[in-house]
Amino acid sequence: xxxxxLGRLVLxxxxxxxxxxxxxxxxxxxxxxxxxxxxxxxxxxxxxPPATIELGMGAHGEPGLRQISxxxxxxxxxxxxxxxxxxxxxxxxxxxxxxKSTNASTDNEVVLLLNSLGSTSDEVLARFAELATAELxxxxxxxxxxxxxxxxxxxxxxxxxxxxxxxPPTSGEAIAREEALELWDTPVDVVAWRQ
Length: 195
Description:
- With 195 residues, this protein is an alpha+beta fold.
- 34% of the residues lie in helices and 15% in strands.
- The chain has four helices and five strands, in the order αββαβαββα.
- The longest helix has 27 residues, at 2-28.
- The protein starts with a helix and ends in a 10-residue tail after the last helix.
- The mean pLDDT is 76.
């Protein structure tokens, strides 16, 4: 009974809000039109040359590390991306203290995330996940979990981002490996995250 009354109250409030909004629009003569604009109509958007990709671009379209032409195979591209992620000698990007990028030992378990830049299909992301998992295995890493989809994006373009979370060792850090995986697996109910 209470739920039904609450539901009616919510619907009535929504109806009153839209009525008030409509009256406000009529009083101030508010109207709205949309238009589709081709790229670079109002801004100077960078356009890549034909048969070129940009490696390392930001989630908001910030310029990347370098442009690559001709476009490498998905296998070669995945390997290049992992080289950048795992290179502990790179002072600009070595934020994760992997013990060795080519022969992992105590910190060999990782969580792999593949992010769409907005319009990349899950099928394409899954193929890159397979390639990254195989390449990580060759380098001595074990992928414990994989998450893919449009996780962090503000674009609607084709592209893929790879993120690796180095799981903590079994002991000696603030959180143990099993506890980290338990937290990773804990269900959440938010709009922009898939599990």
